[in-house]
Structures are given as structure tokens and as C-alpha cells.
Amino acid sequence: MTRLAESSEQRYRALVESSRGLICTHDMAGVLLSVNRAAADRLGYAVDELVGRSLGDFLAPSVRAQFPQYLERLAHASGDEGLMLVATRDGEERIWSYSNVRCQEPGGPPYVLGHAHDITDIKRSDARAGEAEALRSVAQLALATAHEINNPLTVIIASLQLMTSRNQVPPEAAGYVERAIRAGEQIRDTVRNMSRITRLELSRQSPQLPPVLDLRKSSDPQG
Amino acid sequence: MPDPRILVVEDETNVRELEAEILREEWEHVDTAVDGTDALRLLAEHVYAAIVSDLAMPKLDGRGLYEEVERRWPSAHGRLVFVTGYAEAEEYDAFLRQSGVPVLAKPFTIADLIGAVQRAFSPA
User: Fold this and answer.
1) The predicted structure's pLDDT at residue B89
2) pLDDT at B113
3) Of residues B110 and A207, which shows the higher confidence score?
4) Whether B37 contacts B65, CB under 8 Å
5) Spatial contact of B93 and B51, defined as CB atoms under 8 Å apart
6) CB-based contact B109:B116 (threshold 8 Å)
7) Could you give the CA distance from residue A155 to residue A178 in angstroms, rounded to a whole number?
8) Which H helix or E strand runs over B51?
9) β-strands A79-87, A32-35: how paired?
């Protein structure tokens, strides 16, 4: 190898080693030939622990069975790209966006040059934003519903009370009217608790829906 | 207070008529308005001991009514009571805190409504 070629390879190695991108090469059976420091660090292993093992070993168990299909695609195409769910040494699942190409140097066997970015945080952030948006929609619907219920409920409760206070309820119907008022008050309490919960959730901008939305168990002492 | 006059401002017909009917059990003179604009017309004609108003209404809402009353009849704005469907209060939270107008949540009881009006006669 000429000095020029050596110098070029050193620059190439330095570039790969210092890259924050996740770079590896593997043979056509998926066995890792080289891995850069960033990829090894992200998986929680030393580079030496990865080289010689199958890339498939580092996929999350739930997707590991799809690894042969990935290799099959690479055997018949110049490259493959998509999302890869990997598992770190401590079992955390991470999402990598990869773009891998098949290479072959003159006289050598074909191999795959892989390049990936860890997009787990972006994906999770997108998911949280989606959940927050869904929560906002649910909460706004709940508040609008509460408003629409309160007007007719006002008429029902107050009309029944008015009938009672005017002695317009026959004695044999008094129990029914009393029960209807209590039921109306129960609806009133439920709607108020629903509004409190949704307003609280809206103000928190919580990404998570409440695990148990029990409207009868509001934290409000008057609820 | 001799012969107090009360104004009910509410765009929902059923609620408006019911509020007026409840208040007429206690007081003789109860007028009704369908929104804030209608209320301003009546306020120009009569002096009211209490103004019971919805918050969310077409044309002129409770906030608009409060601002007009404060501007045109400064002594009357302390006699306002807002009645709200609760949920809409969020939209008006800052205004309600700032104005200090008492708020009665729907659905109210007869006693709630009468009590709120009595308190409006002699605001703190």
C-alpha cells in the first residue's frame, strides 16, 4: 500500500470512528465485521464484543425473526433501508433508522455497509405529542358536553324543586320526584367532576390519559 | 329594599323562563333579556337591584355586558351575578378573577339562585 493510500485509509478510519452516526459492516450472513465506537456505545458493548457476532443478536426479541428477511432483501438488492428495533445490553429497546448498502471490492466477497441514526427520542416525542393532542381533543369534547348537559339539567332539577316547593306534587308521586332530583344531582356531580378532571389534565398538558378515569372518585372534597 | 327589580339575561329560553319563574316566587318585578344587547336596552329603562346573567351568549356576552354596565352605570356593576354552565368558565377564568363578579354554577338549586340574588342586593 502506498503512503498516499495509507493516509487515505487512516482519514477514512478516523472519520468512521469519530462519527456520531452508527456505522458497521457485516457479511452477507449478518455477521458483524466492524462496528464504530458510537454504535457500540449506543448498544452498551465494547467494539470487540460485537465483532464476530450476528447483527440479528442485537435486534429486539420481538423483531429478531425478521432478520433473515432483511438479509434476503440485501442478497437481491443493492441496499435496504428502514427502521430497526435494537436491544441494548441492559434490555432497553431503541429505534434506529438505517440505510445499508451492499458493497464489494474487487476480488473480495460482498459485504454490507450499514449506517444508522438512533431516532428513539424523536419517535417518543412524536408519540407524546400525539397523545397530548388526543387528550386535548377528549378534554375539549368533555367540556363542551358538560356545557350542553348543564343547561337542560338546570331546567330538570329546578323545575322538580319548583313543583315540590309549590306543593304541586301529589303525595303518591313525591317519592318519584325526590328520586328524580337526586338522580339529577348525581348527573350534576358527575359532570362537575368530569370537567375538573379534564381541566386539570389540560392544565398539566399531561401526555398520559389518567389510568383510571373514575368520575365518582374525584379528589375534590365536595365532589 | 322596597319593590326591587331583577333582570335575568339568558339566551337559553328554558333556562331563562325557569330562572324568571323562580325569582317571581320571591319578587314581583323580574324582567328577562335574551342576550347582553337586549339587557342594555332594559338597563337604560329601569334601575335593577340585581342582574343575573349568563356568561356565554350571542351578540353581547356576559363579559361585554359587564364592561358596558361598568362604563354606563358604574353603580350597577356590583349588582351583577353570573350564571355559568361551569365548563365555559375556563374561557372566562381571568375575567371572573379580575372582575370579582359572583358566579353561580349551573345546574343550581332554587335556594342557590335566590341566595345569589339576595347577596347581589347588598354587595360586599
Assistant:
1) 60
2) 94
3) B110
4) no
5) no
6) no
7) 15
8) strand B50-54
9) unpaired
Which chain B residues touch A138 with a CB distance below 8 Å?
none
Q: What is the pTM of this model?
A: 0.60
- Residues of A with Cβ-Cβ distance to B85 under 8 angstroms: 146-148, 150-151
**Architecture in CATH of B5-121:** 3-Layer(aba) Sandwich (3.40)
Task: Give the sheet arrangement for strand B103-105, strand by strand.
Answer: B29-33, B5-9, B50-54, B80-84, B103-105
Of A184, A201, A185, A182, nearest in space to A143 by CA: A201
Alpha-carbon distance of B89 to B105, in angstroms, equals: 9
A146 touches B: beta carbon within 8 Å? yes
Averaged pLDDT in 10-residue chunks for chain A of 223 residues: 68 73 93 94 94 95 94 93 94 93 91 93 88 82 83 92 91 92 90 76 51 40 34
Domain covering A3-118, topology? Beta-Lactamase (3.30.450)
**Exposure on the CB side of residue A141, measured as CA atoms within 13 A:** 6
Residue type, A60: A
Domain borders along chain A are: 3-118, 125-217
Q: If you average pLDDT over every residue of chain B, what do you get?
A: 89
Contact B106 A153 (CB under 8 A): yes
- Reported as a single tens digit per residue, the pLDDT across B55-101 is 989 899 999 999 999 999 988 878 999 998 865 566 788 888 888 89
Pick the residue from chain B with its C-alpha nearest to A149. B85
Helix axes A120-165, A174-204, angle to 10 degrees: 150
Mean pLDDT calculated for residue range B15-37: 95
Flag whether residue B47 sits within 8 Å of chain A, measured between CB atoms.
Answer: no
Contacts of residue B106 in chain A, CB cutoff 8 Å? 150-151, 153-154
Beta bridge partners of A26: A32, A112
Q: Output the nine-digit C-alpha cell for A25.
A: 459492516
CB contact under 8 A, A191 and B86: yes
Q: Which residues contact A219 (CB under 8 A, 6 or more apart)?
A: none
- Grid cell, residue B11, equals 339566551
